[in-house]
Request: fold
Amino acid sequence: MSDIRFDNRVAIVTGAGGGLGRSHALLLASRGAKVVVNDLGGSVDGSGGGAEKAADKVVDEIKAGGGEAVANYDGVDTWEGAQKIVATAKDAFGKVDIVINNAGILRDVSFMKMQEGDWHKVLAVHLNGSCFVSKAAWPLLRENQYGRIVFTTSAAGLYGNFGQANYSAAKLGIVGLAKTLAHEGAKYNIKSNVIAPIAKSRMTETVMPPNMLEKLLPEFVSPLVAYLCSDQCEESAQTYSVGGGYVSRVAIVEGAGIIIDGKGGHAPEDVVAKWKEINDLSEAKPFANMTEAAGHVMKGALG
Ligand code: NAI
Reply:
């Protein structure tokens, strides 16, 4: 297998002023990518901002290592901000090949106490931001006949987590977005995949003990991201759980299911009678697209 390189590739990494984004940006740049380091600064809950230093520091690190990078300080959460992020890449490097949607904030609060603003802001940064930046880059990726997009979900989105209704909704929305872009991008050689990371960052510093965090460095997540961004990656529409050296595919699967023959009508009791089989995932499988999944239902239902 040849080395993974990004020579002549232009990458946008959102939220790259620290944590995972910084690590992704440094790795890609060290392997030849020209990188737009996007970050508006700000605190974990999305307040503040305008601290240009975070992105500038990462650009300086990349340049000190002999790489090429420019900073961008726009928010991913507005349509205009996303357009400016992509324009920064176009102006500095002439194109976009890779988009890593990583920027994120947290506003954890129980559903009972959640305010309207907590919902809107978290969806704006994670879900709208991932969409807007991908959308701004999309025509350039299609023009290139090449694109690699990596989205960032979370176990909270895939499985749910107390106090994270806003965050988990946004994060699972990202998975749906990524899958549809994978289908729409297929004929243009645009691959779209998702990571669900666990890593030490300011987001996790307050919820995990230091000895655990030291085993979960962002640098252990970035190699998967680099592979998913590379020419060698043929995967699309996939999700991977990654952290501390662990990497695994995550899938939405559907069981073999049952058929209610309907001879005696379709009653709730028919469902209860087959509850064990309905919940049996021993023959579960993932589907490549909606048509395949709908076909599974139709085949069972229509024979
Ligand atoms: P982090 O807080 O270090 O990084 C997020 C970055 O996004 C920050 O530098 C922040 O300034 C930037 N940002 C926030 N709003 C922005 C906006 N509107 N426009 C541009 N940049 C903005 O946290 P971390 O952990 O590195 O998070 C990176 C991504 O990974 C996030 O999407 C997060 O939800 C996700 N994630 C992280 C996990 C972990 O264990 N660290 C677990 C699961 C998901």
Notes: The radius of gyration is 21 Å.
